[in-house]
Amino acid sequence: MTQLKPILSHLDALPSTPGKFKPDKTSPYHRLSRLHPSLSPRLTLWSFFVLFLVILFLFCSPPSATTAVSNTAVNGGKRRNLHTAAVLGPSLGPNWENRVWASARPTSKAGLSILVTGAVGFVGTHVSISLKKRGDGVVGLDNFNSYYDTGLKKARNSLLQKAGIFVVEGDINDAALLQKLFETAKFTHVMHLAAQAGVRYAMKNPMSYIHSNVNGFVNLLEICKSTNPQPIVVWASSSSVYGLNSKVPFSEKDRTDQPASLYAATKKAGEEIAHTYNHIYGLSITGLRFFTVYGPWGRPDMAYYFFTKDILRGKEIKIYEGVDHGTVARDFTYIDDVVKGCLAALDTAKKSTGSGGKKRGAAQFRIYNLGNTTPVPIGRLVSILEKLLMVKAKKKVIQMPRNGDVPFTHANISLAQKELGYKPTTDLETGLKKFVKWYVGYYGSKKKSSAW
Ligand SMILES: O=C(O)[C@H]1O[C@H](OP(=O)(O)OP(=O)(O)OC[C@H]2O[C@@H](n3ccc(=O)[nH]c3=O)[C@H](O)[C@@H]2O)[C@H](O)[C@@H](O)[C@H]1O
């Protein structure tokens, strides 16, 4: 993190709305020449010379520098201007370029060069480390937003640094930054995991979902389609797209036009947007529908995580039930299984066909369920946690509020099995054991239990 600080402080110092700046009518030149009329001709000569140098500089700058005028990013609710980062900052200068370039370089002969967005997120961290371990080049991009404990994100970033992965702090909405990244490294693949996650939070902060899952995604695809050669894109959709679909198990062919939350609606929108970019520009795109992914280094906003915290603190937990005491269940999927699915999607993807924004032929477009195929009732999830934590939970069973949650999820994974060789092997009890072990180690030893 420490090396990212200079970038931050540099960016924070920049005005967020350049248009608001009033021109200074009493410029130093005017003031000086009023005081010393004899200086005027000499100053004019110098002014022309300086102007010439400025024009020369602008001409020689990469396009990102000149197109970067109006992009802003929202980070942790704070509006910061990242646009000129690509233009001015010594922070994005040769040292930054070297780090990006070195991190993007594969260490194995057949290795890929991958930009992982959302790299300090839960899935992003695991995927990045697995890719790096097998010899791929990996550069991370993440805005480190404060949707949940940023301390956890920083700790994940330390893991990535130790693995030799450079994570750039920035937002997928920042076109200039993305352009600069693609100019610096020749990415063969983009693993797009940056998103506003969480089903229930969408009622509190709807615009954050549009910002990241719609605007940000389009911004990223715009850069990908214009890059030459175009990278292959693999990205995270969600089981939530099945919404109120009642046919089980959920198959990729089932209807996905009844989302129950804005989160689900933005992921569904993402799938349609992806199709458009595939159709018009020849981008090879694979969408992965993740089913309630859990495990070590997980997300504190998810039920298994905050149930663990609350059980340990003796705090009451609310277990949702459906209509007429119906069971609410999830097809919980362990992180290592999902990572294997992500890597298989990258490895089996065919190349994009377009270049420089022009399609040259039909490109691959795929969508897969990455689930576990075994839905588990929430009551059972709590019993497993009680056993592992050796603490009785204070349970309150309540009717599921109207908050965007769906009553159950259940993946049919036969397509992913056939085409990706995807085969989940971790049952919920085994996976939660690994999670609890990590949780106790992480919060216990570091006394961080107040974080989430
Ligand atoms: O597969 C996905 O695409 C999504 O998975 C995840 O959503 P969900 O499956 O809803 O997981 P999560 O919130 O952990 O709730 C788990 C269960 O606990 C129940 N639940 C929840 C809260 C509570 O207080 N009580 C309760 O019973 C609740 O009703 C539910 O049945 C990701 O967060 C989301 O980003 C997305 O990736």
From TrEMBL:
Keywords: Isomerase, Membrane, NAD, Transmembrane, Transmembrane helix. GO terms for molecular function: UDP-glucuronate 4-epimerase activity. It holds the Pfam family Epimerase. It is a multi-pass membrane protein. The keyword Cytoplasm does not apply. It catalyses: UDP-alpha-D-glucuronate = UDP-alpha-D-galacturonate. Its main location: Golgi. The keyword Coiled coil does not apply. Its EC number is 5.1.3.6. Residues 114-351 form the NAD-dependent epimerase/dehydratase domain. It is found in: Golgi apparatus, Golgi stack membrane. One of its GO terms (cellular component) is Golgi cisterna membrane. It comes from the Eukaryota. This is UDP-glucuronate 4-epimerase. It comes from Cinchona calisaya.
